[in-house]
């Protein structure tokens, strides 16, 4: 019997001697472990991001938070990405689902895991930084918007910057034609350049979980909705862009 024939047979056969076929992963690895990966990854990423903002509360510029967020995201995706895909962001999960990179039944569990991870990360940042700096930085919650006249620019900024991030994820890690082994660091660099470019516009959140965690821990909710509407709208737009125009033949709906 050839190796190919043996492989086909073993895929069809039920469990033997209590061992599961490699073609059928354990339910834990299919459903629960990815959610744990999103929880842990979100907690680490948001802890580093919040701590960098708090420690930078004296106003030395956007470089420190930009590098901390970008490097933390890239490293976390590189380490944990093979477990869950390394989203750590509800907008990214939305975009990944729309382009066929995430099972629909996992979308809400991913969102819950990411939001819980955001609260854990923000709480860890609170207990590991000095109270004075924490207060000065409002717990790393987003405070860039201080008046209603800033809202149009902030919403558009969040949409554009998050589109760049979700596009980097979907095209760098999901779309077959453009996938790259450097995707984790490309995604991290995208966050860095977005913060450097748009930090003064809206705070460059790009991630509802990153906004939600500090908002809960610091109890700061001013203009919080912007950090949901902008990123989630961007996820929808990127999904449409890939499905209709720039995705590979497996992702596109038309002109295959």
From TrEMBL:
It catalyses: H2O2(out) = H2O2(in); H2O(in) = H2O(out); methylamine(out) = methylamine(in); formamide(out) = formamide(in). Residues 1-21 are annotated as: Disordered. Its main location: membrane. Keywords: Cell membrane, Endoplasmic reticulum, Glycoprotein, Membrane, Mitochondrion, Mitochondrion inner membrane, Oxidation, Repeat, Transmembrane, Transmembrane helix, Transport. One of its GO terms (molecular function) is water channel activity. Gene3D superfamilies: Glycerol uptake facilitator protein. The keyword Repeat applies. GO terms for cellular component: basolateral plasma membrane; intracellular canaliculus; mitochondrial inner membrane; smooth endoplasmic reticulum membrane. The chain crosses the membrane at residues 35-54, 66-84, 91-112, 151-170, 182-205, 225-246. It is found in: Apical cell membrane; Basolateral cell membrane; Mitochondrion inner membrane; Smooth endoplasmic reticulum membrane. It holds the Pfam family MIP. It comes from the Eukaryota. Residues 10-20 have a biased composition (Basic and acidic residues). The keyword Mitochondrion applies. GO terms for biological process: ammonium transmembrane transport; hydrogen peroxide transmembrane transport; one-carbon compound transport. It is a multi-pass membrane protein. Belongs to the MIP/aquaporin (TC 1.A.8) family. This is Aquaporin-8. It comes from Python bivittatus.
